[in-house]
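A reminder from the course coordinator: this example appears on the midterm review sheet, so study it carefully.

Given structure:
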């Protein structure tokens, strides 16, 4: 055979082999290509995510994978990776699912997660895809009822139907679609935020039939009752039942579980002590029992796997010491024991055979601990019994610290110099100490620093004229800083310098999402340039300064603004109509200025408004009708203005109205019996006190300040201004004093059993004090003075044991005065 013939034959053989190995190199089957194109036709793709879907070979399109031999489409992965990276709000695909999708009969893997299908129902036709082993519709905007037909996909191994809170998804017949069709091959099941409250105990029985199940993720599913046994699921390695309402002790069946690697029971209503043999047979890598009501000590840790890497027990009621055997857990990287009642010395975490193995995150804050600072990458020892003394020559046992929290550690003296070499430092919290002197200039140049919290110290001096770095948070509240405010070259998430001694004008270039400048000595006007140059501001607090001029209409450009507080300045003119563009606004506080005119009707567009305070201005007219349309309004305050007319009936229809503050106006007419229908003052609120306690105990000081700012209003109670902390705890208050109201006090006022303060003084009210006032058992302040009331003070008022202030002077009354506290 000639060489030419040899090479020709060899080429022919290789071509045949290539054809046998890659039989579909010309593309996927034409019908499947058309199905995909029809499917794409139903989608909205503003970012061009599917721009590669053109040409003959759909196997080369983005998100598509074909079978190696047959060429059939077996994988369609359109998961929104941008949302995973930048947050769930970064949506890519939306629209509708075209029925052609269900004709891809060879499809094994379908992922539409983190897109936006705008509350459409999950298509039951998915059951036609009988070869599916992987199905994820997670956080893709599906709503309604989970279709029973999903139980027909018996090949499924991975199923994720998790949703966000925007589009509610529920499964009222959960047990049916799990048990009847027996998804026997299922290994992974996630239904985070899916409403399973109707499943009762059936959900655990149904899951017990899935013998191959390895992972269960049922976060915030509305589950309640006791924590049921899942022992029959013998291969279970990951269990997440966090943020449900079990109200249960840790059940005994956990001691017999041997397969668990990860257990998350965060905020599940658990109580009682942690048994010493809890999960002692498992080789746990992660355990999260945080934010429950668990008691006892940490002795159960002794029996846990030495390979545990993540342990979170914070926000419980655990006491005792941190045992020395913690030092034996050499793989421990994340240890969170904050917000308990632990005391004693801190053990040598991560030290073994003379070597330091620093933790990645150590949070021991809000306990009663003392001792040496342990090595860690992220370290929080805030709110303990430390008195930290740091010498200028101190060399720390860590070189790559990323987070340091030493809030409320009694640190005194100059700013800690050792921080100047912590080039990896991302977050620094030294709040609530007694640090003196100036903020060192090198602090602003630490390359990784992103969160800086130095509030509640004794810091003095000036800030740089320009801050060049981009920060997420700069909190310098409650110090003695002075001079002019800095300008910014880059974006800052939150800049809080309230309660300092800054003066001068507000810089035009402050690129800040949340800007808190209250209680300083700032002057000048809010310029249109400031409104143009700032970014998408969400919180703007300029209260308690001496800012003059008018409220610029350009403030209405901030569609995402939630808090606007301009109280206690020297602003004049009218409230601009453009503020009605602030559709996300929750708090509007214009108290204590010199504003005139009427309240613009455009504010009816602020449908999320909770606090509306225009007190102590010169505003006139009737109380506007649209306030009755603001269904989330808790606190309307129009005190000390020139409002006239009667108290409108629509105010009394606001279901969550917490404070009604209308004093010092020119209001006339009667107090009608409909006042007894104010829902939030009649009905018990189930979580006001617990919500506030949780806030103080679990939320960092920066966000506490913001939460408080939501409900910051100025009220006159018991002869003094009421602190807004009490208002946050759903303080119920009604002040109609200093008007010209007439008629009787209706007996229906006795229905307002949650009322804490009632002031009807300085009106023209007549008749007697209703006996039903004695039913207001929570009253702390009652003022009916300077009216035309007559008769005896009802003896029923003697039962008002919480009364601290009682005034019925300047009437025609007789009888015993209740003593109260």
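Designed residues:
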């Amino acid at each position: 055979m000639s060489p030419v013939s040899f090479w020709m034959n060899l080429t022919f053989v290789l071509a045949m082999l290539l054809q046998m190995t890659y039989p579909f190199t010309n593309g996927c089957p034409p019908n499947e290509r058309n199905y995909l194109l029809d499917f794409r036709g139903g989608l909205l793709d503003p970012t061009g995510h599917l721009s590669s879907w053109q040409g003959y070979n759909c196997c080369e399109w983005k998100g598509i994978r074909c079978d190696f031999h047959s060429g059939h489409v077996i994988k369609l992965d359109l998961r929104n990776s941008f949302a995973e990276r930048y947050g769930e709000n970064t949506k890519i695909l939306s629209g509708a699912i075209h029925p052609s999708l269900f004709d891809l009969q060879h499809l094994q893997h379908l992922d539409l997660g983190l897109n936006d299908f705008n509350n459409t129902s999950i298509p039951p036709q998915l059951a036609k895809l009988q070869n599916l082993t992987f199905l994820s519709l997670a956080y893709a905007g599906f709503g309604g009822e989970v279709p029973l037909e999903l139980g027909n996909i018996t090949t499924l191994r991975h199923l994720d139907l998790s949703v966000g809170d925007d589009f509610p998804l529920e499964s009222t017949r959960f047990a049916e679609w799990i048990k009847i069709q027996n998804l026997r091959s299922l290994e992974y099941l996630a239904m985070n935020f899916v409403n399973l409250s109707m499943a009762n105990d059936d959900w655990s029985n149904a899951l017990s039939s899935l013998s191959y199940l390895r992972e269960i993720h049922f976060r915030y599913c509305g589950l309640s009752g006791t924590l049921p046994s899942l022992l029959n699921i013998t291969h279970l390695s990951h269990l997440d039942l966090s943020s449900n309402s079990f109200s249960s002790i840790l059940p005994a069946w956990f001691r017999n579980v041997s397969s668990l690697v990860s257990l998350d029971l965060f905020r599940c209503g658990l109580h009682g002590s942690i048994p010493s043999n809890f999960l002692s047979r498992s080789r746990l890598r992660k355990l999260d029992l945080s934010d429950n009501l668990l008691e006892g000590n940490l002795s159960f840790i002794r029996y846990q796997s030495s390979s545990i890497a993540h342990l979170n027990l914070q926000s419980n009621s655990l006491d005792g010491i941190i045992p020395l055997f913690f030092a034996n857990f050499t793989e421990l990287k994340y240890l969170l024991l904050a917000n308990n009642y632990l005391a004693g010395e801190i053990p040598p975490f991560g030290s073994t055979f003379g070597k330091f193995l620093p933790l990645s995150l150590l949070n021991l804050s809000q306990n009663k601990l003392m001792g040496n600072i342990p090595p860690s990458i992220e370290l929080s020892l805030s709110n303990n019994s430390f008195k930290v003394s740091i010498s200028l020559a101190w060399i720390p046992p860590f070189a790559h610290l990323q987070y340091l929290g030493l809030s409320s550690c009694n640190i005194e003296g100059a700013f800690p110099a050792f921080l100047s070499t912590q080039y990896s430092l991302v977050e620094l919290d030294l709040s609530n100490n007694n640090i003196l002197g100036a903020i060192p200039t090198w602090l602003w140049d630490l390359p990784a620093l992103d969160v800086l919290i130095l509030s509640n110290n004794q810091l003095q001096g000036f800030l740089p004229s320009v801050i060049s770095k981009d920060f997420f948070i700069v909190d310098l509240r409650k110090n003695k800083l002075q001079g002019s405010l800095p300008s910014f070259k880059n974006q800052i998430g939150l800049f809080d310098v309230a309660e300092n001694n800054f003066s001068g004008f507000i810089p035009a270039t402050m690129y800040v999402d949340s800007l808190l400048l209250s209680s300083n000595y700032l002057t000048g006007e809010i310029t249109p340039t400031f409104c143009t140059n700032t970014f998408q501001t969400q919180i703007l607090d300029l209260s308690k300064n001496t800012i003059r001029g008018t409220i610029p209409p350009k403030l209405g450009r901030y569609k995402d603004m939630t808090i606007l507080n301009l109280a206690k300045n020297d602003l004049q003119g009218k409230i601009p109509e453009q503020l009605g563009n602030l559709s996300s606004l929750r708090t509007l506080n214009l108290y204590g200025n010199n504003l005139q005119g009427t309240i613009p009707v455009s504010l009816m567009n602020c449908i999320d408004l909770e606090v509306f305070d225009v007190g102590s201005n010169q505003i006139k007219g009737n109380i506007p009708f649209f306030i009755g349309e603001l269904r989330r309004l808790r606190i309307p305050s129009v005190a000390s203005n020139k409002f006239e007319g009667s108290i409108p009936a629509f105010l009394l229809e606001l279901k969550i109205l917490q404070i009604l503050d209308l004093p010092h106006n020119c209001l006339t007419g009667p107090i009608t019996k409909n006042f007894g229908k104010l829902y939030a003052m009649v009905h018990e609120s189930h979580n006001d006190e617990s919500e506030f306690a949780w806030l103080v105990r679990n939320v960092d000081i920066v966000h506490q300040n913001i939460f408080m700012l939501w409900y910051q209003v100025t009220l006159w109670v018991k002869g003094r201004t009421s602190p807004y902390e009490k208002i946050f705890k759903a303080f119920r208050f009604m002040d109609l004093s200093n008007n010209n109201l007439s008629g009787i006090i209706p007996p229906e006022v006795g229905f307002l059993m949650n009322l804490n303060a009632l002031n009807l003084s300085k009106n023209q009210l007549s008749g007697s004090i209703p006996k039903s006032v004695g039913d207001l058992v929570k009253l702390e302040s009652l003022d009916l003075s300077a009216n035309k009331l007559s008769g005896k003070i009802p003896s029923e008022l003697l039962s008002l044991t919480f009364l601290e202030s009682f005034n019925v002077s300047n009437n025609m009354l007789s009888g015993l005065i209740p003593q109260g506290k």
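The mean pLDDT is 84. The two ends are 117 Å apart (CA to CA).
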